[in-house]
Give the backbone structure.
Amino acid sequence: MLGTTHGSGRTTVAVLAAVGLARLAPTVALDTSPVPSSPWRRWPLSGGEGLEAIPSDQPVRTSQVRAAAVSGLSGQLQVLTDRRPWTEAPLQLPAAPAAWQGLAQLGGWQVGVTDTDLVLGDDLVASRSADSSRSAQWMLLDAGVPVLCAAATRDGLEAAAVSMAAAESRRLPLQRCVLAVTGLAPGSLPRQCRALLTMLAPRVGAVFSVPHCTAWRAHGLRDPSGLSRRFAGAADDLAAAVVGLAERSWGPMRASAAELPNPSPSTEETPDVLTDHAAGGPAAELPPAH
């Protein structure tokens, strides 16, 4: 998940994508935000030690990654987030996207949904004098489907246009990206926003409209029973968009959820990944899609 501005709905979109994809295959949501600004850890949590349990200075084993994960929002979803009090010194989370991808693979999940703290255009422009940017690295990951999040306002969509222009200037693969537009109020988009979205749509692989949900904006997952059916059902639609682009770019998914092994937390594998600390997460249930 990459933002086109701050407040563009990255976590909202990450939750929907993670819940929908978890109905298809074992999925982990990766929270890369520092503790004070992360909404994941403020939702009800159960089990899992959090990212602090993953050593930053030695090889990591599958059992350590699985023990750090919290049973998540629904189905086969788990979450990795920092569960420590905000008063403690921050963990040194890995900067390289490949480290997070390796963490998900080592944990045995087929799908990883990463909620980043990056604003795409800002990051690309700031990295002009560097060899590469983190946003570019995320977008270029093998088997990855970048999701660009934008608020459903004129300013939000204009910022999305600038971010996409910056990505095009770096020859990044927008055609396997989803542009997720988050509604900030009930009702349809204003005419100017619809016109902007019409111009942006051909530049990405898919456009997804995230419905407005008053209960989500008020409570997040503290009280998931109040989430609207339309909002909960959007999880499956977003997952379908992501899987469609993934299969168009990388071929069919390798196995169904029923065919995939579910590694035991006690399983020990040869340590082959070095990582900085990374995250463990929240537990709550979205209502089933209708």
